Fold:
Amino acid sequence: MYLQSEALAHERMREWHARAAHRQLANELASARRWQRLASYSARRARRSQLRLPECRAAFARSS
Structure:
């Protein structure tokens, strides 16, 4: 009986470690997706800002 309980405890521990590893991987992937979205948003903003910069300079020169 003791060996069966010990085997069950080992199996539960293996399952717990597997679930923990899966959770960690899922969290890392979600974090990578968040950073990817943030980086692409920042790149779009920078690109848009660079495109508008000549227009803003010309408007500022006319108003001065």
Summary: The two ends are 91 Å apart (CA to CA).
